Structure formats: C-alpha cells, structure tokens
C-alpha cells in the first residue's frame, strides 16, 4: 500500500506532464517572428555585456545582422540593423563583414545614412582595402547625389588598387562631371587632366571636358535665346547658333548628346537621373 | 622565494583549475570555429577574433581563481600560519604568490593559445581572404598583451586579498576591476565621439577623463588587431602601454606588501 500511493502519484504526474507537453508541442508561440530585429541597447551597455571587449561586442552585432533573413522586408528591422552595424563600426571599424553587409543590404532598404556611417570608418581604417572606399563613393553618387565626395573617394579607392585604378579614375571623372554645378565640375576635370600621366585616361578626360564645355556654352546660348523670345524654347537645337556667342553646335565626344531634364534645364543626356523621371 | 613560487605553481596545477581549463578550452575552440561560420568574407579572422575574446575572458576568471586559491583561501583557512613559519618575509611570500599566478597564467595562455592556433591552422576555413590573419609573430604579441593584462588584474586581486577577510572579495572585485579597466578605453573614445549622448558625456566624462591617474587602460594591451588584420605595430604606444602596466603592477604589489606586513592574523 505504501508503495502504490507514490507510484500512483508518479504515474498521474507523468500523465499530466506528457499530455501538457504534447499539447504544447504544436501550440503557437508568442513571438513567431524571431528573424526580425527589435532591440538595440546603448553602446556602453553592449560594451558591458561583452566584458569590456569592443571586438566581441562588434562581432555580436555583426552576427545579429548576418542572421536577419533576406526575405524580411520590414522597415523597423533594417533600422535596427543599421544601428547595430554603426555601433559595430565604432567598436571595430576594421571588421570586413560589417562593411560588406552594410554596403550590400542597408542602402537598398532605406538606411543610406547608416550604411555610410559604417563605410566611412571602414574606408579610413582599412588602408589596404579599396572596397569600403569604393562602396562609400558609390553610395555618395547613387543615393546621396554628392558627386564631389563620390569622386574623391573613388580616387582613394584607385590609389589602393593599382590594377583597378584606371577604371576607378574614369568613374571618378564621370561622377565629377555629373556634379550639379558644371563649372566646378569642369575645374576638377581640368585639374585631373593636368595631373594625369596615363595617355588613355587623358584622352577620356579630354572628351569629358569637351562635353562639359559644350554643355556650358549651350546653356548660355539657350538663356540668351529665351531672353529674346519671351522664354520660349527653340523648336530645333540648331536655332541656338548665333545666340550667346555660340558659333557651331557642340558635339558630345562621348555620343550621348544634350537634352532638357524634367525641370527644364539643359543636361548631358546620360546624366539625367532616371529615378527622378519615373 | 623562487621555491615558494614553484610550490605555488604545483599547488595551482594540482587544484581543480587545470581540469576546468581543459573543459573550457574545448568549449572555446568549438565556439570560435562556429563563430567563423557566421562570417562571409573573413571566417578565419572572425574565428580568431572570437577565440581571443573567449581566451581573454576565460583566463581572467582562471587568474582570479588562482589568486583566490593560493592566497585568499590560505588566509581564510589559517594555513598561512604554517607558510609564514618558513624563513621568508611576508612580502617575499606575497611576491612568490604573484609569481606563481604569473607562471600559471603563462602556462594556461600558452596551452589555450597553442590549441586555438592548431585548431585554426588545421580546421579553420580555407576561404581565400583579402587579408588573412597573421598567425605568426603578431599572434604571439597578442598573447603577450593578454598575459600582461592578466598580471595587472592578478596584482589587483592580490592587493585585495591582502586586505580582505573573505576569499570572495578579491574574486568579485577583481572581476569588476577587470571589466572597468578593459572597458575604459572604448568607453572614453565613445564619449569623445560626435555620436555620444550629451547626457552620458556630461555624467561620465569628468570622471573617466581623469581615470588614467588611478585605473589602467587595459584595452591598450589588446594587441589582437596586429594578428587579425596584419596592422603594423605602433611601437611607441606599445612600449608606453607596457610601462604603464608594469608600473601599475609594481605599485599594487608594493601596497599589498605594506598592508600584508602590518596585518594582524587572528
């Protein structure tokens, strides 16, 4: 009798245990979406829970960012990821995965500023690595439309990778040329032309200078034409000849030609921001 | 005195310490290899990075446990009476305990460091990296930095053990000290940066900016970037950090000797 009672209790308890376990098995969990990010603690707290070890704190942030599922499209997750990665860049700017992830994921999901905040320290710290400088330049060109900064960092990238340097330099020249203030762009290009020793590159620079000079001359002619025709546009570009000192219609050596953008300003045809037109 | 130090090392080896160390080392190596898998571009560097972080943390605990085992326990159990009956002065006894902890930490560091090196060399990722980690001399330098870091913490724990009546005070306060000293550098550079919270800056900066007078910046002894990213060593900064640590160790041990000399064991 004395043995039966505890045994009965044990069997009943086991029954309750196994039954509840079985029911729990398929029960929906409170937080189903473990792949999204919600929490970013202050940097000093991150440092504390990593035992004062900035490298470990940086790694933990990068691991958290790496495991975000690519199918997640939620804004808040990317905002938190951006902050985690910026913190990681502050803790260890040399981290390669961190800047790579920042370049590949963040700006395309609305976190341009965070991406740049990761890339800039990486570009400064990793002096042997052209990529963070290049991605930083690319983001400055494509997302921030800051052509001068884009050109400067493309030049930094070129200095770090002699084999890719010609391609990077011509990219830098192209970005300088797209600068909103074409007169400044022309100055920069002329300086680059004066300092360059590479024959092919000089030729390319020469073309870019010629097309910008053409653009500036056309803008002067157009302004003069509009002044004399009550703001009307010419029906054909050739009608501009004779206005503003324009003697012949300038050729674009790179073949794109000149056209008006959405705001009615004269631009080189391949400079018009397609995204703005859409 | 040297014999006493050797005795101390033997006592440390015989204790539970090394068995625990072996187990933790295995866990650490596994964790480092797994961490490497999180990295798409530099798996070997991340594995080494996490391995060194773990090593730094584990050996800190070991060093504190050894101080507790070799000094604080002796005081608590009154076995120190027998030791002080030897023809050595109290300060010699104290220094011999410090030397014993230094030897034990060096042994443990070489053991775990070599294991980590071997695991990375044999099983580390063969993914071609833009900048593979430097596993030669820079790695040895990184381990040396960690050893100096441990010695500073051990000296602090010995000072506490010479004052305290409970063996847990050196362990707990030693850990807190290590946390503060290791986090000091990164915290200051965060507060100085443009992105820091102005409130935090107003609260902490006045204290932390003057912390150099009483708290060593142990992050200056963290030389792992040399091994992880093959950076060129900044020799003047490293020599200064070495001098800083050595002076602090001698200061703490001198204070500990003075306190220990006057202590009344009842």
Low-confidence regions of chain B: none
- How many beta-strand elements of chain B? 0
How much beta of chain A, percentage-wise? under 5%
Write down the overall mean pLDDT of chain A. Answer: 84
What Rg of chain A do the Cα atoms give?
30 Å
Order of helices and strands of chain A: HHHHHHHHHHHEEH
Tell me the number of strands of chain A: 2
The level of helicity of chain A is: 55-70%
Shape of chain A: elongated
Provide structural commentary.
The complex is a heterodimer of chains A (278) and B (266). Chain A is an all-alpha fold and 278 residues long. Chain A has a domain at 36-126. Chain A contains twelve helices and two strands, in the order αααααααααααββα. Chain A has a two-stranded antiparallel sheet with strand order 1-2. The radius of gyration of chain A is 30 Å and the shape is elongated. With 266 residues, chain B is mainly alpha-helical. Chain B has one domain. Helix content of chain B is 76%, strand content 0%. In chain B, α5 (90-123) packs antiparallel against α6 (137-163) and α6 packs parallel to α10. The longest helix of chain B is centred in the N-terminal third of the chain and has 34 residues, at 43-76. Chain B starts with a helix and ends with a helix. The mean pLDDT of chain B is 88. At the A-B interface, α2, α3, α4 and α5 of A face α3, α7 and α9 of B.
What's the SSE blueprint?
The complex is a heterodimer of chains A (278) and B (266).
Chain A: H1 4-25, H2 43-49, H3 54-66, H4 75-91, H5 96-104, H6 112-125, H7 130-142, H8 147-160, H9 165-177, H10 182-195, H11 199-228, E1 258-260, E2 266-268, H12 274-277
Antiparallel strand pairs in A: 1-2
Helix pairs in contact in A: 3-4, 4-6, 5-6, 6-7, 7-8, 8-9, 9-11, 10-11
Chain B: H1 2-14, H2 17-36, H3 43-76, H4 80-84, H5 90-123, H6 137-163, H7 168-192, H8 198-208, H9 224-229, H10 235-262
């Amino acid at each position: 009798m004395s043995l039966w009672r505890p045994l009965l209790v044990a069997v009943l308890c086991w029954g309750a245990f196994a039954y509840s376990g079985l029911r729990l098995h398929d029960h929906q969990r409170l937080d189903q979406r473990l792949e999204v990010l919600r929490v970013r603690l202050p940097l000093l707290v991150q440092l504390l829970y990593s035992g004062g070890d900035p490298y470990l704190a940086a790694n933990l942030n990068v691991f958290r960012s790496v495991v975000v599922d690519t199918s997640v499209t939620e804004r808040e997750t990317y905002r938190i990821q951006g902050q985690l990665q910026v913190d990681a860049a502050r803790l260890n700017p040399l981290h390669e995965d961190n800047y790579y992830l920042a370049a590949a994921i963040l700006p395309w999901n609305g976190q341009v500023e965070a991406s740049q905040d990761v890339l800039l320290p990486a570009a400064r710290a990793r002096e042997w690595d052209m990529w963070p400088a290049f991605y930083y330049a690319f983001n400055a060109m494509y997302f921030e439309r800051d052509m001068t900064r884009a050109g400067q960092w493309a030049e930094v990238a070129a200095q770090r990778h002699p084999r890719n340097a010609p391609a990077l330099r011509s990219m830098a020249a192209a970005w300088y040329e797209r600068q909103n203030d074409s007169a400044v762009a022309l100055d920069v290009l002329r300086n680059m032309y004066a300092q360059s020793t590479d024959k092919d590159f000089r030729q390319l620079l020469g073309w870019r200078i010629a097309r910008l000079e053409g653009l500036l001359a056309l803008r002067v002619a157009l302004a003069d034409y509009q002044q004399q025709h009550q703001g009307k546009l010419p029906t054909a570009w050739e009608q501009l000849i004779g206005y503003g000192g324009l003697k012949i219609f300038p050729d674009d050596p790179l073949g794109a030609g000149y056209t008006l953008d959405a705001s009615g300003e004269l631009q080189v045809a391949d400079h018009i921001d397609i995204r703005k037109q859409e | 005195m040297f014999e006493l130090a050797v005795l101390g090392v033997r006592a440390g080896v015989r204790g539970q310490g090394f068995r625990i160390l072996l187990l933790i080392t295995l866990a650490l190596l596994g964790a480092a290899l797994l961490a490497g898998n999180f990295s798409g571009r530099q798996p070997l560097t991340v594995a080494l990075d996490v391995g060194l972080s773990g090593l730094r943390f584990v050996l800190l605990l070991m060093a504190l446990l050894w101080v507790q085992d070799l000094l604080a326990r002796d005081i608590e159990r009154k076995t120190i009476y027998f030791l002080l009956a030897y023809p050595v002065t109290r300060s010699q006894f104290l220094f011999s305990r410090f030397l014993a902890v230094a030897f034990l930490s060096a042994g443990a560091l070489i053991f775990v460091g070599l294991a980590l090196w071997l695991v990375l060399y044999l099983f580390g990722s063969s993914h071609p990296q833009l900048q593979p980690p430097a596993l030669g001399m820079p790695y040895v330098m990184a381990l040396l930095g960690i050893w100096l870091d441990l010695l500073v913490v051990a000296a602090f724990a010995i000072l506490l053990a010479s004052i305290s009546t409970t063996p847990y005070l050196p362990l707990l306060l030693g850990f807190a000290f290590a946390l503060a000293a290791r986090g000091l550098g990164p915290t200051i550079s965060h507060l100085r940066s443009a992105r820091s919270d102005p409130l935090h800056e107003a609260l902490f900066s006045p204290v932390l900016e003057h912390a150099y007078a009483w708290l060593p910046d142990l992050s200056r002894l963290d030389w792992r970037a040399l091994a992880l990213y093959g950076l060129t060593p900044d020799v003047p900064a490293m020599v200064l950090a070495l001098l800083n640590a050595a002076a602090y160790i001698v200061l703490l041990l001198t204070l500990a000797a003075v306190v220990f000399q006057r202590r009344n064991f009842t």
